[in-house]
UniProtKB/TrEMBL annotation, chain A:
Gene Ontology molecular function, alphabetical: ATP binding
Database matches in InterPro entries: AAA+_ATPase, ABC_transporter-like_ATP-bd, ABC_transporter-like_CS, ABC_transporter_ATP-bind, P-loop_NTPase
Family matches, as Pfam families: ABC_tran
SUPFAM superfamilies: P-loop containing nucleoside triphosphate hydrolases
Originating organism: Asanoa siamensis
Coiled coil: none
Key word Lipoprotein present: yes
Keyword Iron: no
Entry keyword set: ATP-binding, Lipoprotein, Nucleotide-binding, Transport
UniProt protein name: Sulfonate ABC transporter ATP-binding lipoprotein
PANTHER family associated with the record: ALIPHATIC SULFONATES IMPORT ATP-BINDING PROTEIN SSUB, TAURINE IMPORT ATP-BINDING PROTEIN-RELATED
CDD domains tied to this protein: ABC_NrtD_SsuB_transporters
Domain of life: Bacteria
Domain ABC transporter: 4-238
From TrEMBL, chain B:
Membrane topology, record value: Multi-pass membrane protein
Phylogenetic placement of the source organism: Bacteria, Bacillati, Actinomycetota, Actinomycetes, Micromonosporales
The protein's name: ABC transporter permease
Domain of life: Bacteria
Domain ABC transmembrane type-1: 72-262
Keyword set, alphabetical order: Cell membrane, Membrane, Transmembrane, Transmembrane helix, Transport
Amino acid sequence: MTSVVLEGVSKVFNAGRADEVTALTGVDLTVARGEFVSLIGPSGCGKSTLLRLVGDLIQPTSGAITVAGKSARTARVDQEYGIAFQQAGLFDWRTVQRNVELPLELRGSPRQERHDRAREMLDLVGLAEFAGHYPAQLSGGMQQRVAIARALAVHPPLLLMDEPFGALDEMTRERLQDELLRICASTGTSTIFVTHSIPEAVYLSDRVVVMSARPGRITEVVPVDLGPRTEATRQSPGFFAGITKVRKALRGDPVPAAEPLVAP
Amino acid sequence: MTTAVDPVVAADPAAPVVARRRHGSAFVPPLLVGVVGLLLWEAVVTLGRVAPYVLPAPSAIGEQLWQSREVVWRTGLASGGNALIGLLVGAAVGLLAAMVAARFAYLGEVSIPVAAALNALPIIALAPILNNMFDSTSSVPRRLVVAIVVFFPVFVNALRGLREVDPIHRDLMASYAARGWTVTRLVRLPAALPFVFTGLRQASSLAVIAAVVAEYFGGLQNGLGSRITSAAANTAYPRAWAFVVGACVLGLVFYLAALLLERLVMPWRRV
Ligand SMILES: Nc1ncnc2c1ncn2[C@@H]1O[C@H](COP(=O)(O)OP(=O)(O)O)[C@@H](O)[C@H]1O
Ligand SMILES: [Mg+2]
C-alpha cells in the first residue's frame, strides 16, 4: 500500500518570464505506508517545493501526484496530512494550548477530545506547563516544539516536515527524533522529512532521498536498515556506514551497489 | 510583514503597546514636563506683560475653567456624544468596507491609494455644506463629518492588516482545508487587529477634533466648538481658552479609551 506516489513531476516557477526557475524536474518517488523518507540536498534543490507539491500547496507543472490513493488536492481537502515548517508559524493570538487545538477544531473534534489530545501532545514535547502561555512568551525553540505538537495532534496518516528540528538544541533534537519515530511507528504514519543534517536523515529514515540543484532532481536514494532504533543505534557501525553513503551521494560520488561497510 | 508600507499609514502598530511600562512611573516624566511648562508659561505671560488676546496666563484660563465648569461639562458632553457616535459609525463602516475590499484582491489593490489620497483632503471643509443639507437643530451634520473623517484611517489600516497574511498561516490553513470566512475569522481578523487599533487610535483623536471644529461652521450650537467661537468673538479670550482645554481633555479621554480597549481586546500583545 502506498502513501505517496510522484510520477515524472516537475515544477517551473515564473514560467516564460525572465526569472523562470526550474525548481524540480523528472521526480519519481514512492513512499510506502508507514515508511519514513528523508529529503536531503543543498539549499535551493527543491526540497521544500517537493513537500509543498505533495501537500497541494502548489501544483506541479507536469507529472502526477497521488496521496493516500487520491489526487493531492482531494487528499488535502480530506486533511490526510499534517505539516510543520521550518518556522513555527504559530498564531500569536491563541494560547499554546489553543494553537495545538486548531487543526482538531477545524476537523470538528469535540471540545473535551481536543483539549485532551492537545495536552497529550504538549506533554510529549515537554511544554505542558506552558499550555496557557501566548507564543510571544516562548523562545524560538519552544515555539517550534509547539508547531510540532500541532502537526502531530491530529494523528495524520501522512506527516510532511520541512526542517522542523533545525532551530532546536542537540538534546531536544535527539529526544524529539526518538519521540517522532515512536509516534510514527505506533500510529503507522508515513513521513516525508526534510533535513540538512546527514546523521538525522540516517537515524530517522527507512530511505534517504538525495537531491541536487539546478535543476532540482533526485540523484540517489539510499536505503537505511538499522532495525528498531535504540540508544546504541547512534554508535553503531551501520549508522556510520549510512552516513558515509549519504555523504558520498551528496558529493556526487558514484555508490557501488555492494560497497563494503566503512568502519567508524 | 515585509511588504512595502504606505507612508501615509506607516505608524507602527506595535508602538504604544510595546513602549508601555509596567508601572505608573512612566507617567512621572511627562507630568513633570507639563508642570514645568505651565510655570514657564505663567512666568512669561505675567513678567513679559503679554496681552491676553495673544496668550492668557494659565491661571486666568484655570479661573475661567472653574467658573464655567458646568457649561464646559455640558458642552463637552454634547461634543463628546457627537464624536462618539460619529466614531462608532465611521469605524464600523470603515471596518466592513475593508473586509469587503480584502476579499477581492484587485479592489484592495486600488482602494488603498485612493483612500489614502481622500484621507489627505481637508474633509472638515465639508462641514458648512453638510450643515446646509440638514436643518439647524440637527446633530446629524457634525456626526457625519466625524464619521467621514474616522472612516479613512480605520479603512486604510484595517485593509492593510487584512491583506497581509503570513504565508505560513496561509499554507497551514490550506492544509486544514479551511477557506473563505473561516480563514477570515480565524486568521485575517485577529492578525489585522493591531492594524485596526492603529487606525482607531488615530481616529479617536480625529473624531474629537472634527466634532469640535465642525461647529465653527454653524449648525446646532450646543458643543465646545460653538463656545470657543462665541467667547473669542466677545474678546473673552481666557474663556475661549477654557473651552479649548475642555476639548483637549476630551481628546485625551478618547485616545486613552482607545488604548484601553486595545489592551483589553488583544491580551497577547501585553505579554
Ligand atoms: N514561490 C516561488 N517562486 C519562485 N521561485 C521559487 C518559489 N519557491 C521556490 N522557488 C525556487 O525554487 C528553487 C527551489 O526552492 P526550495 O524548494 O525552497 O529549495 P530548498 O527547500 O531545497 O532549499 C529555488 O531556486 C527557489 O528560489
Ligand atoms: Mg527549504
